[in-house]
């Protein structure tokens, strides 16, 4: 399968117009994922460290400041306390990226200078996306000009609900063009899409339009990342890869707060896609509070004791 960037393909409804998703079977398969594979001791610790490597450490709050972003970036550069790193025999552990609003991109770029950690920015009227298209495209260009290397765009959910696939395709293709060299993650806001069939179809249209990643949620919907939705999206990207030879990344986001969640979504990728999709170039976890629990679990692995959460810097 090609490691080149997905160029997209012309919209082709025949790839998905007759797709059927068996919801009970999808839910049953998702439920089995976390019971069929048991991760203990050193293996569990290794998977938790890998989750950190694949994490988009995120702040998307209305009261974000440059100082808060700088603190987040410091945590991204050193997500684990020194004694935990020493106990694990590791060094140089960082998160996969830092994700912020467009106006905070420049501050994040400054704070991450000298590292290889990319800055991701949400754009296109995040989280609702209900802005004129020209303004959403301008927001992408602004974020890229500020130094963002990855752009997390949001789609117009109404296009999916009306089955207006041409409008959805044209919108995402225009956003991909505006991203230029920056990689584009297409947020589908799956909690708003009503059915798993809609989730599959929206995933396929986003990839046909050139998305580098497909992402579950903004984190602001009533329902965010779930394993059944994620399984449906992963099956769509697997089908797209089989047809085109291009590898698409996957990013679940929203509602994931524990180390157990980090393991569950990695197991999904391992079982469905293989080990290649356990690397940050093809898999990201959109999270922030999850990191504190991962650090706590790794401290227990190293010391045999659970530390108070106040001992670990809040991401």
From TrEMBL:
Alphabetic keyword roster: Lyase, Schiff base
SUPFAM superfamilies the UniProt entry points to: Aldolase (SSF51569)
Broad enzyme group: lyase
InterPro entries per UniProt: Aldolase_TIM, DeoC, DeoC/FbaB/LacD_aldolase
Origin: domain of life: Bacteria
GO molecular function: deoxyribose-phosphate aldolase activity
Signal peptide per UniProt: none
PANTHER family, per the entry: DEOXYRIBOSE-PHOSPHATE ALDOLASE (PTHR10889)
Protein name in UniProt: Deoxyribose-phosphate aldolase
Species in which this protein is naturally found: Sedimentimonas flavescens
Taxonomic lineage of the native organism: Bacteria, Pseudomonadati, Pseudomonadota, Alphaproteobacteria, Rhodobacterales
């Amino acid at each position: 399968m090609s490691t080149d960037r997905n160029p997209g393909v012309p919209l082709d409804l025949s790839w998905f117009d007759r797709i059927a998703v068996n919801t009970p079977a999808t839910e049953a398969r998702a439920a089995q994922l976390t019971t069929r594979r048991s991760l203990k001791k050193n293996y569990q610790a290794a998977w938790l460290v890998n989750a950190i490597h694949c994490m988009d450490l995120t702040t998307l709050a209305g009261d974000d400041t440059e100082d808060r972003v700088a603190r987040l970036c410091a945590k991204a550069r050193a997500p684990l306390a020194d004694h935990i790193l020493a106990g694990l025999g590791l060094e140089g552990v960082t998160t996969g990226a830092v994700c912020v609003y467009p106006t905070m991109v420049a501050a994040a770029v400054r704070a991450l200078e000298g590292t290889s950690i990319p800055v991701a920015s949400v754009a296109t009227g995040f989280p609702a996306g209900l802005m004129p298209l020209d303004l959403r495209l301008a927001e992408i260009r602004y974020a890229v000009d500020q130094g963002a290397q990855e752009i997390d765009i949001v789609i117009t959910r109404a296009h999916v609900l009306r089955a207006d696939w041409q409008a959805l395709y044209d919108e995402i293709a225009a956003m991909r063009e505006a991203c230029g060299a920056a990689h584009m993650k297409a947020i589908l806001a799956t909690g708003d899409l009503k059915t798993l069939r809609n989730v599959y179809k929206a995933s396929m249209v986003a990839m046909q339009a050139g998305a580098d990643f497909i992402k579950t949620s903004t984190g602001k919907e009533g329902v965010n990342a779930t394993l059944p939705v994620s399984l449906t999206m992963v099956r769509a990207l697997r089908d797209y890869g089989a047809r085109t030879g291009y590898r698409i990344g996957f990013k679940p986001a929203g509602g994931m707060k524990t180390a157990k969640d980090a393991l569950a979504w990695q197991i999904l990728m391992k079982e469905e896609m293989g080990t290649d999709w356990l690397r940050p170039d093809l898999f990201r976890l959109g999270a922030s509070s999850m990191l504190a629990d991962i650090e706590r679990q790794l401290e227990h692995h190293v010391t045999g004791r659970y530390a108070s959460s106040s001992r670990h810097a809040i991401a």
